[in-house]
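Workshop exercise sheet. Pairs work together: one partner reads the sequence aloud, the other fills in the structure field after running the prediction. Swap roles for the next sheet.
Pair: D.N. / O.F.
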Amino acid sequence: MASAAADNFVARPDEGNDPYNLIVTDLVALIGHIQASLRLIESAIEREALLAEHDPASNIFVLDDITPRYIGASTALKACDTGLGIALRLLDSTAPARVLN
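Structure field:
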């Protein structure tokens, strides 16, 4: 604690329950979940493309395949990821100062 005091930083005992920190933690967790979902969707699309290459009937085109659903979900998740990233940056730029003089 003496080192923290020397750096003009005072740690609050209830800092773990600070609403700001809780919001940031939630945003970071949401971004992580969204990015994991995006990776799952991308791997599913790649897997389907690989299966289609090895399928002897791959020269037959089906208009109602599953890829458009993946692309729609991916687009929505990318929009969420972008929005949450912006929210996190805005929240971080308006964060109350944690350094006391």
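Discussion prompt: Residues 52 and 61 are 10 Å apart (CA to CA). What would you look at next?
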